Sequence to fold (194 residues):
Amino acid sequence: MDLETVNKLLSDQTGNHATFYPILKERLNVYPCEEVSFPCEFLFFEERYLAIKKHMIENNVKQDIVDIGCQFGFQSEMFLDSDSYIGIDRYRPSYFMNSEKDNINYIVGTFPNVDIDLKEKTVISSMSLGYFNSYVNEDETQAINSLINALKEAATIYIATTKSFVDELSSHFKTKELLSESNAGDFHLYLLQK
Fold:
C-alpha cells in the first residue's frame, strides 16, 4: 500500500465506520456472521495500523512484519507489498485474510510461546501485549519478563500497550517515541527502535 492510499484512508477515518469494509467486502463472505459481526462498522484498529504503515513508509522502516494479536488478519491488506507479514493469534478463525499470498503467513498460538525469530523484524502489537498477560503466565511478573525477553530481539516495535509495560520494554531499545495518544485511557501507540 503506497503513501497516497494510506493518507486517503487516514483522511476517511471518522470512527463511525470501517474504511476497509469496501476494500474487503467481497472477500468477507467466507466468515459466518457470528464470527465477524457488523463488519461495516469495525474490522480492526484501522487508524492505528494506517498510522503505523505511514510511519514505516516515511521512515524507510523494514517491512518484515510480525503482527502479534492479528485476529482475522484483515490488516494484512496493508502489507501485501511488504517483504513478509506473519500474524500471530491464539485463536484460529475460519479463515485468515490473504493467507493464500506467498508473503502472508499466520501462526496460531500465544506469543511468546510460539516458534518465531524476531531478530531484524518489525513487530506490531495493537492492544494485545501488556493487557492479557495471564494468557502467557498466571504470575504477572513472569508473564511480563517472558514477553520482554522475547520482544527485546526485535529491530523495531510499534506497540499500543500500557505505559508501564512500554517503560520496562524500552530499556532494551535506543529510541522510544510516543506516536499517538489515546483519549480513551492507557492505550497509547509507541515506537521502539534499536
Notes: The chain has a mean pLDDT of 94. The longest helix spans residues 46-58. The radius of gyration is 16 Å.
